[in-house]
Amino acid sequence: MEFRIAGVTAVRCELNSKLQDTLEQIEEQLDVALSKTCKHFDVLHYTKVQKAYTLLGKTQTAMDQLHMHFTQAIHNTVFQVVLGYVELCAGNADTKFQKMQYKDLCTHITLDSYIPCLMDLCKALWEVMLSYHRTMQWHEEHDKQKATSSQDDAAAEPDELTVDRSYVKKKLEHGLTRIWQDVQLKVKVYILGTDMSNFKYDDFIVVLDVISRLMQVGEEFCGSKSEVLQESIKRQSVNYFKNYHRARLEELRMFLENETWELCPVKSNFNIDQLHEFKFMGQCRSPSVSPSRQAASSVAPALEEPSLFQQYHQDGNPFEMHIEQKEEETEDVLASNGYESDELEKSVYQDYDSDSDVPDELKQDYVDEQTGDAPLKSMSRETIRSKKKSDYNLSKASAPILTNTTLNVIRLVGKYMQMMNILKPIAFDVIHCVSQLFDYYLYAVYTFFGRNDMRLSVIKANAATAGFSPT
């Protein structure tokens, strides 16, 4: 009898051990399935996983594991993106990069690959944040369905399920800030890993534009003002702008030294809005907002503009639009040989020689007047030509009086204004540098043409502050 009891006990223990092993394997498989939702959220897949955890009675455990997977997904994502560009630029199969820390890896990004890597980095991080956003939406809709079904059944919901739902809701809400903080820290390391002081102006504007769009994502994601990103981009901006302003002052000095003070032939309808540097003012929008969204808001201003998570809920990416926007814009502000165009220059002289618009009466050698007075000679072609040329010159005189240096200063002011629009934290420093540009230009004009007719002590002082001692 005792032998039978011992045998049964042994079998039972063995079954319990096998069931425990099976349960652990199930949880491991569920954990793997749960981790896959962090990058590519699928409603059916996530529903099955949550149902399995509910049957196991481990809803809270699943939520803890989910947040760990999102943190790991952010780390793995940024590392793989940066590693791919570093290895691509290195051009060899050296595996030393794979053993580097993410911070050290970012310092190996080349200037040419910096912007493409930044865009891919933001695209990948967007996918992670979108998955988290869709996860929250799934739980909100699931809770509403449960609440509706409980009211219809008129049956009290078990306290355990109520506690689980409350725990999941609070965990997801707190996770928003935590995930966005992780995203900011990873992007901050990338931003500060490269010296951008020697970037081209347009490339630096693209970087600012991408980070501005990322901060917009963060504000919609969890209401954050993205202080970490703002501080890092401010540090790079101050460093870049000091170097940029110094180079532009030196460039202006060379312009002034070689300026012949001849008239720059611009069209009579010239306006600063036609210059590439002032295009951003006509769009009346933040640089991070796409033209399509701007057009939509102008057509239907009464409708509230959908958030980025609503626009790109199913497909697309808010960071793809920057590649499409970066197209070469052409200008048409200069006149050809002093005329609006070659065709107009040709037509002026053709019209002078043409008598197509001269009245038939004036084409005759004599006019038969009813008054009996002496016949009058017709108006000569030379008189008509002179009259037309006088009218054209009058129209031409209305064109702005500009030199090449003046046009260059105007372009610089436009670039500085665009920086002020994007870099609001250093806008005061930028406008101070704009005044230095203008004072230096004005003092040069005074030195060449004003002589000693007036004193410009203020302008001299500002010119000296800009680094140029007047002689």
UniProtKB/TrEMBL annotation:
Keywords: Coiled coil, Protein transport, Transport. The keyword Nucleus does not apply. Residues 14-138 form the Vacuolar protein sorting-associated protein 54 N-terminal domain. It comes from the Eukaryota. This is Syndetin.
